[in-house]
Please model this.
Amino acid sequence: MGFPEVRMRRLRRNAAIRNMVAETRLMADDFILPLFACPGERVRAPIAAMPGVYRSSIDGLLETCGEAVDAGVGAVLLFGIPDAKDDEGRSGYAEDGIVQRAIAAIKRRFNDLYVITDVCNCEYTTHGHCGPLVNGEVANDATLDILALQALSHARAGCDMVAPSDMMDGRVKRIRAQLDSAGFELLPILSYAVKYASAFYGPFREAAGSAPAFGDRRGYQMDPRNGNEALREVHLDIDEGADMVMVKPALSYLDVVRRIRETSTVPVAAYNVSGEYSMVKAAADRGWIDGKAVMMEILTSIKRAGAQAIITYHAVEAAKLLAVGR
Model:
């Protein structure tokens, strides 16, 4: 049976019926808000390439967390901007490091806010790469011990989940063993299992001060041309103990999100990264697009592709729109 008996427009005539039959529904609980913690007091430094996003001292982070909680956002992802860097990133696992102190402060004020921590070395090394260098290359196995120490320091500070983002081979296994041996066997790992060497990270590198001093990260992050490789990465990380996996970036890799969701035995997250955010904000600022509408369409597409959690700088703004039925 086809037209005229079948008319697809019947179920699109007004908002009530469209909402009734909608296949994908965004919720504030879907969102994880990234935050940049920096030293000092009363610091709220705007990031030029990311309007509305700031590097914040801990007091400022607490204000932002309060806004997130009020909007219904239940989780944050912490990145740190340290006082000092070295060739190996030792400040990343210091007990009094910026992320460690931020975790403790957030959990004291907002015990029910779920705190996820990025585990990587690029913010903490003088050269901006994700581990110590040997002959100009990141030393994979030496990096694993540093990552494990960093994850353990976050666990001891009180985080709810660790998220290794470095793309070193074997890091999930090493972190899992470190956490378990220290009594944190219930702390989950969200692996950046599928992290592409993407041009969409530019604004983030301004925010975190993590741009490589030389070269690039294509030797350890994934080639954007590959999809089957993503499935291998995911299954390896699950075998090593990952409780969730992530695809980063989101928009250019929605096909990968879908493939992983269809084959993965663990929940799937996607990172709506800085470049994706900045393009929307820049075009909206120039009046070229309806920024709010495009934002919601993008987030819906990520969930429709199969992401069960969406890391996004739009989190609070989107949650507020959802609360008023937009």
